[in-house]
Structure formats: structure tokens, C-alpha cells
Amino acid sequence: MTEQSNTTRLRNGIVDAARALTVATGWDGVRMGAVASAAGVSRQTVYNEFGSKAGLAEALARREVDQFVGAVRAALIAHGPDVRAGAYAAIAHTLATAADNPLVKAILTSARGGSDELLPYLTTRAEVVLTEASGALIDWAGTYLPGADPTALAFAADTIVRLVVSHIVLPRDPIDQTATALANLAVRLFTAAAHPPR
Fold it and tell me: Are 157 and 141 in contact (CB under 8 A)?
């Protein structure tokens, strides 16, 4: 195993431990010593890798964003040209993840207030996530709707992403029902982008 892969494995193990402790107790309650103990390394190793608790928070927030957007892209790609199925899968995944993952929910909703010191690291990622999620939709729809008007496609993607976030902030119906309605809307918006009025 190379030195780089050892370092990556070490860092991932530390971030995994920090994430588990954060979900269990909140970031305010996370101590670097507890992270080290949970990761099976020394406290000094945690500091060597991340510099400070703020550096660890930054790494944790970045990984949550990368994994979330990656999963959205995978859900879209798995359904190829079936726009409705891809949209449903991505939307349902997003709603379910936000319901089960307090870190992703904080990122998507830009939750503020409270005393949790991790929130600033998460909420500064909100615009990045919205932009990257919209980009994933645009890339995917652009592949299967090659004649679509780029401006209309960008508006459709942004609209869907913002509507999904609004249903995370104020859920009204079960996930399946909401995902179905939003996927149907996505089909209409993307179809309109692909066939703009002359």
C-alpha cells in the first residue's frame, strides 16, 4: 500500500469517527481526544492531519457535500434516458437523505441558529451544493435532451432543486408522494426546455 493511500485511509478513518460522534452528540460535544480514541489513533495524529478542530470540521463538511452530490449524480445516471425515473430517483434520494442525515439537512436548508459550531462549515456549503446539484441535473438532461435550450434547461434544473429544498424545510407529504409529484414536474420542465416555443 502506498504512503498516499495510507494517509487517505488514516484521514478517512478520522473523519468517519468525527462524523459518528457529531451525529451522536452534536459538534459542540466533539473533542479531538474522543475523535482520536474512536479512530484508534493518537490525539497528536488528529492534529497533525487536520491542524485544528476547525480543519476537521472543514474536511467533514467537504466530504458530506461530495458524497451527497455524487449520490445524486449516480441516481440520475443509473436511469439513462428515462427522465422521469432519473428525476424520481434523485429527488427521492435527496428527500430521504435529508430526513435521515442531520448534516446533509443542515447543508441543504442552511439551518442557522443554535450553538452548534459545525453549522458555519455546513451552511457555507449550501450554495455549492445547490449549484452542483443543479449542474448534475443540467449535465444529465443535456445528455438526453441535446436540443434543449441551455437557458431553459438551467432554469428547470434550478427550479427543481429549489423545490426539493423547500420540501425538506417544510415537508408536507410522504417522500414517495412528494418525489412523484416533483418528478412529474421535472419531466414537464425538461420537456419544455427541449421543445421551446417558436
Answer: yes
How many CB atoms within 10 Å of residue 70? Answer: 12
Q: Are 27 and 116 in contact (CB under 8 A)?
A: yes
| Consecutive 10-residue averages of pLDDT for the chain (198 residues) | 81 94 83 95 95 89 85 90 92 90 74 52 70 88 84 91 88 94 93 77
77 vs 141: CA distance, rounded Å: 10
Q: Are 13 and 40 in contact (CB under 8 A)?
A: yes
What does the alpha-carbon distance between residue 91 and residue 108 come to, in Å, rounded to a whole number? 13
- In whole angstroms, give the CA distance from residue 88 to residue 86: 5
Instruction: Please count the other Cβ atoms lying within 10 Å of the Cβ belonging to residue 52.
Output: 11
Domains contained in the chain, CATH given: 1-51 (1.10.10.60), 58-194 (1.10.357)
Residue 133 to residue 74: CA distance in whole angstroms: 12
Can you tell me which residue has the cell 408536507?
172
Phi-psi region of 108 (alpha: psi -120 to 50; beta: other; left: phi over 0): alpha
Indicate the pTM of the whole model.
Answer: 0.77
